[in-house]
Specification:
With 457 residues, this protein is an alpha/beta fold. Helix content is 29%, strand content 25%. The strands form seven sheets. The protein has a five-stranded mixed sheet with strand order 1-7-8-6-17, covered by helices on one side. It has a four-stranded mixed sheet with strand order 25-26-4-27. Bound molecules: uridine-diphosphate-N-acetylglucosamine (UD1).
Length: 457
């Protein structure tokens, strides 16, 4: 079947191995409510074998938003279609009028030919903060957009002021009314500008990068974020006809063009999933081949993992990690924007520190209030004390299985890791968070020796 035939139906999400995105009788995507599902982990196993790494959630979401910038079809491969967040953003895009199909072979087809109204309602946006990333593309292409503010989030207040600041510098008039961002570009489109972000923000860099591709003249984003996902987004935009340079540095220059065209693009590997299973290998004394991923995107995560005792090497398209006999040693880390230690691996690293000889200090500088996993780890026997934005972990603890839950994605992953080494059984509640960011987690871990099951309520 040709892509245009596949796209005739407004939206299809194929039923594959994914556990929670299913197709209703009407062909509508249904994200199965997985909030009450649980994962049970029996501790004491060693992870050994191969884990295929999915495409990066945090790249895929932005690439999907970028498809709004062109009236031509865009094909994304290596798309992690099994993630709840991909389903949620698909609903937002479909609500805007994008024809799309998500296939179980990890291909997504997107065609934003006709956008009836550049309006993203609260009902859809509130489910996922990253939906605010439709604002820049919509404003750039149509000259106006209304997007609901995403609302609160479990990891700090996470405002979007910097997203809006950049667009205002490009000439947009922006009002916040009744919980909506109402933005228009009154001078017949956005105008290139110099924008210096007061702090490094991934989302603000991406939203303004997309907006600037269709602005008149040149935009410079200074103190820009340098994450590999931003480089991936910029690379795809360039394939679509954008003129972007300086990707991966703190100054990104965008020469505006009149229009962008369709393309085919492969999503980069998920560095956070890669890092999570590296921690799993270190904690269990395991030996894993992480397939289709690269050390090049892991930044400052690699050194502390080596210092802790994990052997790490790139082998072709895979990463081989092992800690079969070496002891685990405590070490200090501080989260920072890329290439610093990623905040999204902080909870997992802290969980590993509970097993290490000696103490380790974890300092979180990217988000306020990102230690929600600490009380849960302490319930499993960990010795962690928090002072402001630092936590001291006293190691060499024998964790004990318990019933736990977490209120964010990476904290949930850290509890699964804790369950792998804990004595007895650990039940992780509120699996909804894991479904947002880890594709087929029970299958992937089960295949490398974990005793892990998902219980649906
Ligand atoms: C993205 C990632 C998230 C990761 C984070 C930092 C996605 C979908 N999410 O989130 O997994 O943890 O980068 O690597 O890619 N801030 C402001 N004003 C703004 C925007 C941000 O003050 O307008 C602050 C935030 O509150 C936070 C800091 O900037 O303290 C960094 O946030 P940001 O880099 O924007 O994170 P996200 O893009 O939301």
């Amino acid at each position: 079947m040709s892509h245009s035939q596949e796209l005739k139906n407004p939206l299809k999400i194929a039923q594959g191995t994914e556990q929670h995105v299913v197709v209703s009788a009407q062909g509508e995507p249904v994200i199965r409510p997985s909030g009450l599902d649980k994962i049970k982990v029996q501790g004491g196993t060693v992870l050994k074998g191969n884990i295929p790494i999915s495409g990066a959630k945090n790249s895929a979401l932005k690439l999907m938003c970028a498809t709004l910038l062109t009236s031509e079809p865009v094909e994304l491969t290596n798309l992690p279609v099994g993630l709840a967040d991909i389903g949620t953003l698909s609903k937002v895009l479909n609500g805007l009028g994008v024809q799309l199909a998500l296939r179980s072979d990890h291909v997504g087809l997107f065609h934003a030919r006709d956008i009836a109204k550049p309006f993203a309602p609260y009902d859809l946006v509130r489910k996922m903060r990253a939906s605010i990333l439709v604002l820049g593309p919509l404003l750039a292409r149509f000259g106006y957009a209304e997007v609901s503010l995403p609302g609160g989030c479990a990891i700090g207040t996470r405002p979007v002021d910097l997203h809006l600041m950049g667009m205002e510098a490009m000439g947009a008039e922006i009002k916040i009314e009744e919980g909506y961002v109402k933005a228009k570009a009154p001078k017949g489109g956005l105008i290139g500008a110099d924008i210096t972000f007061p702090i490094v923000s991934v989302g603000a860099t991406e939203n303004n990068l997309m907006a600037a591709t269709l602005a008149k003249g040149t935009t410079r984003l200074m103190n820009a974020a340098r994450e590999p996902e931003i480089v991936d987004l910029g690379n795809m935009l360039n394939k679509m006809g954008a003129k972007i340079s300086g990707l991966g540095t703190d100054t990104i220059t965008i020469e505006g063009v009149k229009s962008l065209h369709g393309t085919r693009h492969a999503v980069i590997a998920d560095r956070i999933e890669t890092g999570t299973w590296m921690v799993g290998a270190a904690m269990t004394g395991g030996n894993l081949i992480l397939e289709n991923t690269s050390l090049d995107i892991l930044g400052a995560f690699i050194d502390p993992m080596r210092r802790a005792g994990l052997d790490i090497e790139q082998s072709g398209n895979d990463i081989h990690v092992a800690r079969e006999t070496k002891p685990l040693i405590g070490t200090d880390i501080m989260t920072e924007p890329y290439p610093g230690f990623p905040t999204d691996l902080q909870a997992q690293f802290m969980t590993m520190l509970t097993l290490c000889a000696g103490a380790g200090m974890v300092t979180e500088t990217v988000f306020e209030n990102r230690f929600m996993h600490v009380p849960e780890l302490c319930r499993m026997g960990a010795h962690i004390s928090v002072q402001g934005n630092s936590a001291i972990v006293r190691g060499a603890t024998k964790l004990r299985g318990a019933e736990v839950m977490a209120t964010d994605l990476r904290a949930s992953a850290s509890l699964v890791l804790a369950g792998l080494v804990a004595e007895g059984e650990t039940t992780v509640n509120r699996i909804y968070h894991l479904d947002r960011g880890y594709e087929n987690i029970t299958e992937k871990l089960g295949n490398v020796g974990a005793k892990i099951t998902r219980l649906s309520e």
